[in-house]
Amino acid sequence: MKFHTANTLALAVRRHLSTASTVGSLVMCSVALVACGGGDGSSTVRVGNGPTAGGFSAGTVTGKGSIIVNGVRFDDRGAEIVGDDDSRHSSGDDIKVGMQVEVEFDDSSCVPAAAPVPASGASAATGGLVTTASTSCKAHRISFGDNSLLGPVSGFTAAAGTPGSFTVLGQKIITTATTSVSLDGKATALGDGVIVEVYGSFDSATGITTATRIEAKAADLASLPAGKFFRLRGLLDVTAGSVGGVKVDLSGVDTAGLDGQIVRVRLAPKASEPFVVSKIKSTRRHLDGHHGSRGELEGVIADWLYAADSMSATFTINGIKVSVSVSDDPAASLTAVLLADLDAALGATPAAPVRVEVHGAVDANGVFVVSRLELHDESDDSAFELHGAISAVDAAARSFVLRGETVLVTDTTKFRQSSHGSLSEAGLAVGLTVEVEGRRSADGTAIVATKVKLDD
Length: 456
Known about the structure:
This protein is mostly beta strands. It has 3 helices and 31 strands.
């Protein structure tokens, strides 16, 4: 298991896992989750149980065909697709890999995953790692784009192994090995002046956004299409006339009850401050209407508050309040230490963003109560998954296009047997339906295939 945000925490988790009675199974699962029925690029610790009812899932799209979020494949056919500013979309084609989405679904539509097979000598009953509750569900509503930033890049800094770091409208943007980048002919590369839209998880304490997708919208401000707006998220200070420290003109919007909150605003595009705000809304999320619903959330931990005496913690993920308690769990000694290590990592100076996936259910107060917590693994070679028909092939470049993503074939790409037969690199052709697993290229613009096979 690798934990990209804090090496000390990764070592601590390895230490806790090594003390478990099922050390063989845990180590095997942490190295290769697929062998234990997982494979979602996470390391998982069970922390309790919760009720189940309807469902929702909020997180990063890691695959297409239909869409894959938090390790679950959601069929988007017939679903209501809602974009930014409540725009309606006829299909899920506008939802791209790396976008942040929220999916609502019915539990009765879900196909359960097969039970994980424990490693030799281990017991499934005592294993510390578990799989997602289902592998595929029917979505009835998908929303996206509601927390993105849009504006010009400044202070761009290249970084080995990632697309780099920069600011957008004064907001710090960092990238990871799994950040998707789409230039789409709008720019030749990320750099100062390029107008981008950034999807990701926002840490309200630091003001840092960990980008999961970056889309170039224009090479510069002059090239930005008419009708496009800048978008900014940050702390509203009505007295100072600022959002996230950026000077804004609030005269055209109602700020009643919003002062001191994290808000998202729509701005008229221009070269410098103050920007004129044409729309404002709070980013606080209330799940009161989802009482009893089970679900999954993925993102960066913010507003962390740890109570060592009760072995519990509260935090938020993209504005949603989350609670985790291990007092009633039979493996509390393991999980309590993990919470303590999370607390240490989040309290470090400088604090590094901690990206997690949590599973659980919503209580009567609209709080998401965690039943499972997973540490995100940025090094997973199969973090992305695509299903569909190949739309283009470039044999000389050893690449093809699938679901709008450029897929690179390397000498280490494995072509697998499927129920439809075998496949080789030479057999790749337009119209062929395939399944691909892979990782992001260093610049984020392509998926490097680790496995390719005919789609089942």
